[in-house]
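Record 1 of the preview.
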Amino acid sequence: MNVETSYSGTTAVATVSGRVDSANAKDFDQELRSVIDKGVSGLVVDCSGLKYMSSAGLRVLLIAIRKTSAAGGGLALCRVPDHIREVLEVSGFVRLTKVFDTLEQAQASFSN
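->
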């Protein structure tokens, strides 16, 4: 797993690639927490390079959704591969956060 982050004001884009599973979910959590702790309220997670996400990864996303919502913003996912989008739909995550086809759409959701 690799996470690269870019910032624009109070919004950040975290591009995650590889696999997020129980072996590295703690690292994923630390990455997202460090982004949020920098004062980011709007967090976009670009999943275009994501190959696999286990329930441990979903838990990390849930924590990040709660933290960003508490900060007055939120979390948006974008460019989610079909096999991961299906997991998000079945697990109910699509009701907790927005899922966008493009990075631009996800970023624009925080500019309102």
